[in-house]
């Protein structure tokens, strides 16, 4: 030993991890066993005094647990960590308190152990001592600052756990130290739970001495976190002894806990008859309702406590009381199959057929839950076996849905209709087939259910079984007379449905029973089309093996291969090609599958088609090759592939446009470079003379222009009308492109066939920056057109003030001014009027759409009409036989291609969905457009207009039934306005505006809806109009035309007439015209009610006043099946008498007094008549301003 010790002093001792672990374990073992000498030996070595086992227990923990006071004292004297915690958060003080070792607890506290430290779940040393009944430890901890108010995570305090465990001495100690009563809860609840009257009395004995205990009615009515009082707890367990004590101490027998639950609800729910009687004897309210509307009788009936039900009924409980959802106690009894409770309720005259808010009877509920006994009782008492719920479901439907075969048998025995239908036309067999309940399907068929009955959508049970992938049901139905090729409303057969879902087994099964493999839907889709769309190659394989035709086209001209190409279904496309499908087959408008695959950017399908000899040169109806589409859509990979397969880069469309034209217009630089590298003609001209450079100039695609110039593109090439790229850029206001072309030596004074230079073009369009740029580059301001007009003359004619200010100082030549009554025609360069394949998700839309659509009608049909004054007389002279006057009027006609004209349009559509109270989905659609027209006067006003359109909800079935719902069409200009009451077949207009003393009103001064404001500097107008009429039974008879009453004058007016202003007075310096015209017609109705709907003029119509002309007719735009409505308005106003020199005075001549007029675009909505009557509320609003 000595030698070993000497060696240890001269050599370094190396211990392995296992040796260290063994040493620590021995140390902990010695501490646990109370072997002080061994503990000291370990501590003399390298053992850590705070080392612990995997659970976190160290030597101090173990010694404290086992009560080894001497070891605890030694460890503390050597610096053991008194606050070290186990993995569960327990310190040595927790452990000693739990074990009840008072000496060790004392020792630990003296060494500063924290008496209120909470372990996991909130346990304190005091809680642990209380739990085990160590009263002396409890007393010591309380004397040293332990807080008995600290509770565990579940809300238990030391007092509560002591009560629960029955440690009376500990309870007494704790109560003695709880002078303020702060910790007596949930102790009282625990006493109530245990029916511990003694403890409860002890807890309540000093309550009257504490102010805090008297809050909320005192401790006896205080609640835990769950919201229940001690009386609720006593009621739950039926502890009448403690309940009596609580009631004697003024417990509130009607106290509402969370959700308004009273003690009587609790006692009834748990069937505590004695408690129920006690509470009722103590004046508990027998019909008190919870937040959900449950009475104590509901609670007892739902739980099947027949004795409590009987007691409550005998003591006057209302048997017809309903919950918020309309459930009666009988519904509750039916739900739980509590036959005796149901019998008692029926004995007390409860209604057999009482319904919920969803029109469910007790029999519906019993059927839903499969409760045969209660269902039989109800049927024996003659309840209605075919009662219909809100959606038309009968008890038999519900039993079929929930697979309650015994209830089905019972219902049919008692006369339930096997062919009853829901609102959507579902029979019980439909429901069972869809749900896949084979035993019920067989039973229903055995009882002569018709497998071919159709729903309102035309679907049979076989359709629904196919939709739900119920193969066994399909087999049963087919063996029992189901028509294999039954067609639904859209002509779908079950085979179409199976093909869409990709269920090969069902497809085979249907085909084996003779299903027509090439049956077509309303849109001429075969099952093979549908399989191609969904990518179900196995289904397609089966269909083709059964000789499905792969060249049948849909209504819009697509074969299955087109469909596979559109949706990128590679496997189906390959299968079709293997089966002999023609890769170049042409659909509508001459589109081949390769066109379609290119348009939708499915490069893998395009590759497959090309590998199978699809022609890259195939042309559509408009002459487009696949390369044209790839160029426009920027499909770089497909374009490269097409060129590799020999596509011609200079292929021309029907109008002479090449792929390079399309790529240049769209600004696709990579495609442009690719095409030019493959020898595309950089100066290729379309039939109207447009080159790629023209189109790049039109769209301001400078990066494309740079590439074109690099490949020797001409910058001064002209179209048939003589337009150069610079003309085009100037017309469309593309100042960046203008600068680029001028930098590349474009001719700044080139002229068109009608003598227009780029400066003329820019002046005509009002592009200030372009005009300035041209002048800086030596453009001639004195050049005249073929009809003698200078750029300045054009700008003055169109009212471009800023352009006039730039041109006037530099113009020396006086242009020829056209007569004021002449219509000025905007001169525009050619544009590419091509058509492209639609991006529509289905083929329901046209496969081709016009390029560059604008809001409303094409721009070539848009006109801005400018009536004018001569003195006090405004020239219109509108003819009755023409909506657009041919007499003296000043107007601008915007020609096709003038999309960068003074009319700047935008379109936005937003669709939102919400749910009405009748649970039907409604849509709100808003369409808005903002427009700005420039002034038509040199010093005149700017005109701004803003439009909003809204259509609202459809009528609910209830509104439809009572026939009293009114429909409102509103026309609204924001501002001060008055409204007209609903349900009046009249139209009222009110407006207010301001402009000093000289401002006149279009109505008489005594008009009740007229208001006036005064503002010397600004003319504004606010207009509100409402017209309302009725749908349904109270609608006007359609035998005679509907007419409205003009309340101002007493005149009546009908369709084709307009509200116009009062005659213009000599002292009135302006005029307003508001036109609102309507057409009425009837639409088919499924009821006996008359139906009234309105149709208004189509998009972009200008209707002029036709006052006092009762014979005026307007074309009926109503369709027999679709109701449409649109709105057209005209507004015109002259500037008021000027208050400053920049206002043009009335009487200074027609040229000076012209003013702007606006013809509002219309909006149309339509709806399917299957969607029940519709209540639409269109709103058309705008604001009008005259600016200095």
Topology:
Blueprint lengths: L1 H9 L6 H17 L2 H9 L14 H8 L2 H9 L14 H8 L2 H9 L14 H8 L2 H9 L14 H8 L2 H9 L10 H8 L2 H8 L25 H8 L2 H9 L14 H7 L3 H9 L14 H8 L2 H9 L14 H8 L2 H9 L14 H8 L2 H9 L14 H7 L3 H9 L14 H8 L2 H9 L14 H7 L3 H9 L14 H8 L2 H9 L14 H8 L2 H9 L14 H7 L3 H9 L14 H7 L3 H9 L14 H8 L2 H9 L14 H8 L2 H9 L14 H7 L3 H9 L14 H7 L3 H9 L14 H8 L2 H9 L14 H8 L2 H7 L16 E2 L9 E3 L10 E3 L12 E4 L1 E3 L2 E3 L14 E4 L14 E8 L5 E13 L9 E9 L5 H6 L3 E7 L14 E7 L26 E11 L13 E2 L6 E2 L25 E3 L11 E3 L27 E3 L4 E3 L17 H4 L3 E3 L5 E3 L11 E3 L2 E2 L3
Parallel strand pairs: 1-7, 11-22
Antiparallel strand pairs: 2-3, 4-7, 5-6, 8-9, 9-10, 11-13, 12-13, 13-23, 14-15, 16-17, 18-21, 19-20
Helix pairs in contact: 2-3, 2-4, 4-5, 4-6, 5-7, 6-7, 6-8, 8-9, 8-10, 9-11, 10-11, 10-12, 12-13, 12-14, 14-15, 14-16, 16-17, 16-18, 18-19, 18-20, 19-21, 20-21, 20-22, 22-23, 22-24, 23-25, 24-25, 24-26, 26-27, 26-28, 28-29, 28-30, 29-31, 30-31, 30-32, 32-33, 32-34, 34-35, 34-36, 35-37, ...
